[in-house]
Amino acid sequence: MFIINAFIFLIFILCVLMVGTLALQILAALFYSDTPKSSRNVLRRETSTAVLIPAHNEASVIENTVKGILAQLTEQDRLIVVADNCEDNTAEIAEKAGAEVIERKAEVLRGKGYALDFGIKYLQEIPPDTVIIIDADCEVGVGGINQLAVMTLKHDCPIQALYLMENVQGATLKQKVAEFAFLVKNYVRPLGMKMFGFPCQLMGTGMAFPWHVIKSSDLANGNIVEDMKMGVDLILVGKPALFYPDVKVTSLFPTENIVVTNQRKRWEHGHLEMILTQTPLLLFKGIKQLNFKLIMFSLDLAVLPLALLSILLFCFTLSTMIMSMLEGAAFYGAAFFIMTLIFTASVLVAWHQFGRNILTAKDLLAIPFYIISKLPLYLGFVTNKQSDWVKTKREENNKMDPDKNTSLNNRDKGL
After folding, report:
1. Could you tell me which of 311, 310, 336, 339 has the C-alpha nearest to residue 323?
2. What pLDDT sits at residue 393?
């Protein structure tokens, strides 16, 4: 019985930390004002920037991405596409569109991290002042490249733009729930961290770095969530990323079921692996050094995906309430029930303030079915964990939908 109580106590503490962190982030995000500042429109720079695009079989999307970024560059800037192990004509299309193209071939060392490392080594011949990493299927908001370059030099640290994945018109309810969950993870929670003055996680695209920071980073690895690993590595050397929501970078969710499943498996299995391997180390170092930025970064990293956290809370609320009725000890049952209420209220607040243009009130009723549908994915982490980097397949019709490129002002109002 002692072992059972000790296990429940451990889970209780972990849930308190995760739910408490999530609730505080969402609450803080409510106080953010995105009223345009005049200074945002007059940012100027004389420094050089290299935009680095890692690309593997991106023929269907690379041309639009290259042309969109080139339109934002100055004479001293460069746009480099790393055509990594491509089996299509990505390199040819990118070069024709105006990019500087380098090609990489490797039979074993595969993954985005290796492609980025290849690009950084190439830039060492003529190093820029800043490097901005953009994925091959992304659209960068007008003026975004300039703003990211200015801000990363101003603060002398990595800057993370707002990165959102959006659905095409006619998306299924399941796809819309996934878009809302992505919004909470990549916008609402980092916004809360920003309001407290704490760093954010890196998101894989829309990332800007001073040259002296990126050139010494350990990029050559096949980690399936290379952005999270990079963020952890940088905070450990005193260069955590700051969230800059004024610049918006967008891409589209894939629509084919098998592609969606593989993408989510890579993201969530990689996230869970990072939680298990990195959070204890970061939290211990943060407490030992009384480094509150490192402590909050580790707690932010430790928050489980919303669907998995809700499953955990439901299971332990139900089991502890049954135990309470059988043994007459009601503390844990009541405590888990209260935590579940706080978690549910926090998600509803996030939806009301930021996600009403994605999900209607009626759509919320289907969220439990979405959560249940993800059970095989989480069970797969135990039975068939993904450890190899697998690129998300692009679809021929995966183009940016102008109707989805809405401003955050409309998103915040739930329009």
Report:
1. 336
2. 57
pTM of the complete model: 0.88
Rg of the chain over Cα atoms, rounded to whole angstroms, equals 22
**CB distance 261 to 165 below 8 Å:** no
Q: What are phi and psi of 100, to 5 degrees?
A: -90, 120
Q: What is the pLDDT of residue 5?
A: 79
Q: Which two tokens stand for residue 146?
A: 């300039």
Is 131 strand, coil or helix?
strand
DSSP 8-state assignment for residue 123: H
pLDDT bracket for residue 390 (50, 70, 90): low
47 close to 129: Cβ distance less than 8 angstroms:
yes
**Dihedral sign, Cα of residue 167, residue 170, residue 175, residue 180:** positive
The partner residues of 102 in beta bridges, in order of sequence, read: 82
At 221, is the pLDDT very low, low, confident or very high (cuts 50, 70, 90)?
confident
CB 120 within 8 Å of CB 218: no
Please give the structure tokens belonging to residue 347: 């998600």
pLDDT tens column, 210-219: 999 999 998 9
- CA-based diameter of the chain, in Å? 74
Q: Give the β-pairing of 100-104 and 130-133.
A: unpaired
Burial of 4: CB neighbours in 10 Å, binned 0-12, 13-18, 19+: exposed
Q: What is the mean pLDDT of residues 307-335?
A: 86
